[in-house]
Amino acid sequence: MNEVLKNIYTRASVRKYKADKVPEDDIREIIRAGFHAANGMNRQALEFIVIENRDSIRKYNRKAINLYAEMMKASGQPNPMIEKMVNDPSADMFHGAPVLVFVFSNPSAVTPIEDGSLAVGNMMLAAHSMGYGTCFIGLARGLENDKEFRKECSVPDGHKYLACMILGKPEGSTEKHSRSEVKVLKWVK
Asked: What percent of the chain has pLDDT over 70?
């Protein structure tokens, strides 16, 4: 099997990390892999925020949990799992990861959601190939419109929040999830 396919088939989301610092050069290489993903009309409109500061990670964890819970309630679909996290001061949506990578698009993006998704996919595969673990953190979306977060992270007006990925060395073995057979609805020849 070629190395690219092997990397794709062996990657798994990691939800427990060592506290070890990730070298800056490795973080930059992983982000570079994300930036090299396909993007709409080659606008190259993605911009990244990296957070390694433990106090900031703890602060954004708690804030994101509360904001996401508010979003769910406002949508009329409160989530018991999220409510449990709100009431648990030790809840950690970032799973102890030493690095958070946020992906934003600037206003020139024509396909920001697709661009960000492809970038995170590339970053996850690059990180896996380098011995790191990652996980896409959808619950961090609560920070999307938080004025304090945007100000502290120097997010310019007009930039769209796309994703949050955590990164670090996995603690223990990485659980592999089996996949069902691919479902092709129709194949027109």
From this structure: 100
Residues 159/104, Cβ–Cβ less than 8 Å: yes
Unique residue bearing structure tokens 């670090």:
168
Q: pTM (2 decimals)?
A: 0.95
Alpha helix stretches (DSSP H) within 75-130: 80-86, 112-129
CA separation, residue 76 to residues 13, 69, 73, 85 (Å): 29, 11, 5, 18
Supply the mean pLDDT for the chain: 96
Q: What are the structure tokens assigned to 80, written together? A: 């018991």
Q: In whole angstroms, what separates CA 88 from the centre of its chain?
A: 22
- Residue entry with tokens 């993903």: 37
Are 22 and 115 a contacting pair, CB within 8 Å?
no
Helix (H) or strand (E) segment spanning residue 168: strand 160-168
Report the distance separating Cα 151 and Cα 146, nearest Å: 9
Two structure tokens written together for 56: 């900031």
Q: Cα(188)–Cα(167) distance, rounded to whole angstroms?
A: 40
Cα separation, 133 vs 127, in Å, equals: 7
Residue showing tokens 């492809």: 118
